[in-house]
Amino acid sequence: MALFIEKPLAFVWKDLINEVSYKFAFFMQVCGILVTTVTFFYLSKLLGEVGTSYLKPYGGDYFSFVLIGVAFFNYLKVSMDSLSASIREGQMVGTLEALLVTQTEIPTIILSSSLYSFIFASFKVAVYLILGAFFFGVDMGNANIMGAFLILLLTIVSFSSIGIISASFVMVLKKGNPVNWLFTNVSGILGGLYYPVSVLPKWLQKLSAMLPVTYSLEGMRLALLKGSSLNALLPNIAALTAFSAVMLPLSVLIFGYAVRRAKIDGTLTQY
């Protein structure tokens, strides 16, 4: 048990040391959260009552709607970028091959390489929510915390599976990563990030229903803004659970295949 915890903590400590060495970059990220929040707050003032009928299931307020979307979309970005960036860095500095020939199992490497990024993403989400609740009047007084936490766990698992597949492409193709670009952009357009999925044409709504981000953002909004019960959140929970159950083991298999192929080709250190 101690060994199981020790390795992930070592990865987190390594990433933390690297992060704190760039204090200005950290400061700019926090400033970026503030700028984004203020921008959408005044944009919501400009829009006024426009689109209220589409926003009614989420409380009717556009700023609250988009704040939750922008905040929790961070988990998708982290899922798609963190492991891929870690693999790419390992290729360029020559540490990837040394890591992959150790006795550390692939699932442990996958989990540990992304752990700090998810912790930092959670910090940024907390900043968004605190700013929204205490400075911009977002009402989360009736939030279903347990439901939101369950949606969050399933969100991280389901998003991570796509991120692992994305990292597999980096392992083999080095610089080319079509999964990252395609999935992030499609999710942003169809997943309800800036506007409800219900504004989309019916045929695009069907495509949206195939994306985990759709159920994640909707579930988070219902749990935090409406205080929806676990029963009401069940469709989103079920969809994320099904996606995770299928895609997570599949993504680990794909990543394992990518590692074996890179070892056979002798391209682990190539970049």
From TrEMBL:
One example GO MF annotation: ABC-type transporter activity
GO cellular component, one term: ATP-binding cassette (ABC) transporter complex
UniProt keyword list: Cell membrane, Membrane, Transmembrane, Transmembrane helix, Transport
Membrane-spanning parts: 20-42, 62-78, 115-136, 148-172, 179-197, 237-259
Lipid bilayer topology: Multi-pass membrane protein
PROSITE patterns hit by this protein: ABC_TM2
Residue span(s) of domain ABC transmembrane type-2: 24-258
Family (UniProt): Belongs to the ABC-2 integral membrane protein family.
Annotated PANTHER family: NODULATION PROTEIN J
The name this protein goes by in its record: Transport permease protein
Organism per entry: Candidatus Brocadia sapporoensis
